[in-house]
Amino acid sequence: MGNYAEPESRGSIVQPLQFIGIISNTPEVDSPTIWRDPESGTLIIQSYKASEVDLSRCKDVGSIPGHSADVPDHETVIRLPKEMIKSIVDLAARLATHEEVKE
Fold it and tell me: How far apart are CA 42 and CA 37, in angstroms?
């Protein structure tokens, strides 16, 4: 699976994820949520599944020349609500200043 490796769970202690943010109208409507794995620094994102129209639009644009626009079986495409981008930007700013990320 690309360059990502899940933390080992056998014989070692896995640090809990850090909660980063959730959409503001939760729990009434939706629950897109972002967590950060403190060991790998990766984000884990729960959000809306991309529609077939979204996937088609992604394929139309593509990415870098020579790279397949197909989504591998071990990946998925999501649609992240606009207001959730702020959570990622705020996290990036805290990490850039080496500020501790708190739950």
Answer: 5
For 29-83, what is each residue's pLDDT tens digit?
778 999 999 999 999 999 999 999 999 999 999 989 989 989 999 999 999 999 9
- Entry pTM: 0.77
- Strand order, beta sheet including 43-46: 18-22, 33-36, 43-46
What is the Cα–Cα distance from 3 to 18, expressed in whole angstroms? 21
Closest among 87, 95, 91 to 23, alpha carbons compared: 87
The CA distance from 76 to 99, in Å, is 31
For 31-42, give the DSSP string.
--EEEE-TTT--
CB 36 within 8 A of CB 44: yes
